[in-house]
Amino acid sequence: MDTDEALTYTDPEVLRAAEAGADWADPITDPTQIDWAPRQDAALIPFEVINGRPMNPREKTGITRGRNKLGHWGEKAAADALVLATGPDGHRRALLIERTDRHGWAIPGGCLDPEETPLAAAVRELEEETGLVLPDAAWQVTPVRYVPDPRASDEAWMVTVLCVAQLGAGDELPAVAGADDAARAEWVLADDYETLVKDLADTYGGVVFPAHVDMLQEALHASVTAKPEGA
């Protein structure tokens, strides 16, 4: 593969999905044909458009043109629901899912639906992927952040809002089961990030989804300071 080919790439699966009408894949193959003003106005993190092409606001990915493995052009907004609980053994655990795309273990979450708030999306995705419903939870909604997603390019990227619920101690952990985009859902030991990584490897033979490493490190090592919002 020469340099030009290495810098311009869209996964064939994205193109096939777009042709098939999949809702996650934009059918427009040329970003200069997009009306970018509405998308820029709605963006959670501002970004530039130069000569009709969106510009990643945070990093150079090595793929300057194309969507890499993401279906959309420009920003796609998501929300993630991190649920922490202390089990009867006194150890803190985090509810994680094993992604069906083999990218690793992640915080439950997904893309926002039209007109949906990040908190509403996080709560919905949590139920869809794990079966867990928390009607009385006090959620902490953190500021929007850029996601260092390995599937991104310089023209297609993800941003997310992390929502955290701390359930405290209980006689037993709530029952969960993987569904939708989750092959499995498990309560992983999470007294700190290093413990989480070790438990994933030793118990489940897994690794953390690269895009969620920073979020998990910060959430497990520091208190979340955002004000609670009701679901």
The low-confidence parts are 223-231
CATH topology of the largest domain: Nucleoside Triphosphate Pyrophosphohydrolase
Q: Structural class of the secondary elements? A: alpha+beta
State the shape. Answer: elongated
Spatial gap, N to C terminus: 49 Å
Give me the count of strands: 13
Q: In CATH's first tier, which class of the largest domain applies?
A: Alpha Beta
Task: Please give the radius of gyration in angstroms.
Answer: 18 Å
State the assembly state of the protein chains.
single chain
Strand content: 25-35%
Main beta sheet strand tally, sense and closure: 9 strands, mixed
Order of helices and strands, N to C? HEHHEEEEEEEHEEEEHHE
Please identify, by name, the CATH architecture of the largest domain: Alpha-Beta Complex
Q: Helical residue percent? A: 10-25%
Number of helices: 6
Number of domains: 2
The average pLDDT is: 91
The CATH H-level homologous superfamily of the largest domain: Nucleoside Triphosphate Pyrophosphohydrolase
